[in-house]
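Dear support,

Our group has been running a series of protein-ligand predictions, and this particular one with iron/sulfur cluster is the one our PI (initials K.S.) wants archived with full inputs and outputs. We had some confusion internally about which version of the output was final, so please treat the block below as the authoritative record. The input we submitted was:
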Amino acid sequence: MALDLVQNPKGNWISLRILEGLFSLNEASLRSRGLRQFLWALIKVELFWVGGKCQHSGHCCQKVQIFLKGTQIESPGEWEASMSKNKGSLARFQPVMAGSGQIRHFNCSCLTPDMTCSAYETRPQFCKAYPFSNFVSEIPLYEKCGYHITWTQLKLRSKNRRLRRLVRRIELIYKP
Ligand code: SF4
Ligand code: SF4
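Confirmed final output from the archive:
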């Protein structure tokens, strides 16, 4: 379950124009992947923000999808490796297998019948960071979540095709 987040729904147009310029410059000269990702992360929060409020529906605690470092845990091997590194915080999750032998989702033993977390203070980082973590990793939010991704008051002016594709991707994932 999420913390209530404070973001800037207006965006900062000066920052956005500078970042757009730097993005185009990188594409035209350096073509550094790391710099591109860094600039895109900054541009994204000027164009979009996480709006809404937690309705305490508990949906994000049911059929949990676990992403560690941006990668979804889908196979038993990945799960075992993650468990050995993060035993304390992950022990509460039980994988539910799909017919394919892959992990469909996880059940959390800390979810109470009234949809609250019985171990709120010690919940894993990805629980604390939801929904912002999903936005950062460009993962859809849970269905019927009280949060949504929406536009700030700014629009992209850059004609850079790669940057436009990245923005389009966010539009397709979140339909802001
Ligand atoms: S640890 Fe708590 S917040 Fe995280 S999924 Fe389980 S019940 Fe939800
Ligand atoms: S799915 Fe969204 S609204 Fe529901 S408990 Fe989680 S953060 Fe709150």
